[in-house]
Amino acid sequence: MAIRLNLRLRRIATAAIVALAAPAAALAAFPDKPVKLVVPYTPGGSADQLSRVLAEGMSRDLGQPVVVENKPGANTMVAATQVARSAPDGYTVFLASNASMVLNPMLYQRIAYDAARDFRVFGIAAELPLVVVANNEVPAGTLAEFVTYAKARPGKLNYASVGIGNPLQLATELLKSRTGMDVAHIPYNGSAPALTSLMGNDTQLMVDVISTSLPLVRERKIKALAVTTSERLAVLPEVPTVAESGFPGFRAATWFGLAVPRAVPQAEAQRLQAALDKVLKDPAFRGRFEPLGLVIQAPRSQAEIDAYVQEDRQRWGAVIEANHIKLD
Asked: Which first-to-last residue range defines the signal peptide (predicted)?
């Protein structure tokens, strides 16, 4: 009888140990199925290329496929809304940007998600630097010279952008406020017509992403006056920063990162972050994108990521409020 009781007690104890170990085993198993990376842009662009290489690298570390799903529409809001409403289990990841996490919530009067409440940005993967470019006929070889030229002609010069509320327009308005220039805004439907207007001298100035302006700068069809990063770019080493040009502290860039719904458990978010950080440290990954003008970021702690996003919100919020920009 005693032997039978001892055996029963052992079985109960074993079952209890297994039950206690089950949550830890389940946690350690994440992910145990493919992860979906929702990209709010069409295939083929720089953001899509970045996403696919990130997905490939993270797949190796996670031991599960990371599958890219392109979901363009409504200036990233279609994809952002979809991810915000997805199951908070770590299996749906969003290619976040300052458009989706910072600008859209401040610009649009009707938006179906709250970036700060609905998302956790767990990594900043790359910054896409901006460059200040000018028409070749403008008698200014530096940003300081252009500012002097513009101030002597208030309201008579134009700047091109790819649309109202776009990061490029906001960056130009930020530049105007810092330099005191009075330059009129001419919006275009895309970078190609905007750059055509610049080359044709219909507009004289533009703040553009480095990837689209770089070929024209190299072909001497437009000229680069300054870059908006805190340091000079390897692809344009002779072009000074805006800060070096007499406007200290100026910095503006678009960025791409990864985010999950805010309710995703911390352990799953940290596992995804570790996989992303491993890719960001890979020299081959950095070498692939930096010649295209993307500045791959070093891994940050969660506190540093939160501070980075909050600083971005403060910077652009001031520009939006000062210019009374609201979109339907």
From this structure: 1-28
What are the b/e assignments for 96-114, b being 16+ CB within 10 Å? bbbbbbbbbbbbbeebebe
The H-or-E segment that residue 124 falls in is strand 119-134
What's this model's pTM, rounded to 2 decimal places? Answer: 0.82
Distance (Å, whole) CA 271 – CA 274: 5
pLDDT 10s digits, 9-50? 455 555 555 555 545 444 458 999 999 999 999 888 888 999
Q: Which spans in 101-205 are helix H?
A: 104-107, 115-118, 143-151, 167-179, 191-199
Asked if the model's pLDDT at residue 2 lies above 50, the reply is no
Query: Where does 244-298 show beta strands of DSSP type E?
Result: 253-261, 295-296
Whether the ω angle into residue 31 lies within 30 degrees of 0, i.e. cis, is yes
User: 3-class secondary structure for 60-104?
Assistant: HHHCCCEEEEECCCCCCHHHHHHHHCCCCCCCEEEEEEHHHHHHH
- Stated as kind and residue range, the H or E segment containing 223 is strand 223-227
For residue 144 the two structure tokens come to 């300081």
Query: pLDDT digits over 260-276, tens only?
Result: 999 999 999 999 999 99
Residue-averaged pLDDT of the chain: 90
For 269, the enclosing helix (H) or strand (E) is helix 266-280
Interatomic CA distance for residues 139 and 61, integer angstroms: 53
Task: Return the H-helix or E-strand segment holding 263.
Answer: none
Consecutive H or E run containing 271: helix 266-280
When pLDDT is cut at 50, 70 and 90, the band that residue 282 belongs to is very high
pLDDT for residue 14: 53
Q: What is the DSSP string of 296-323?
A: EPPP--HHHHHHHHHHHHHHHHHHHHHH
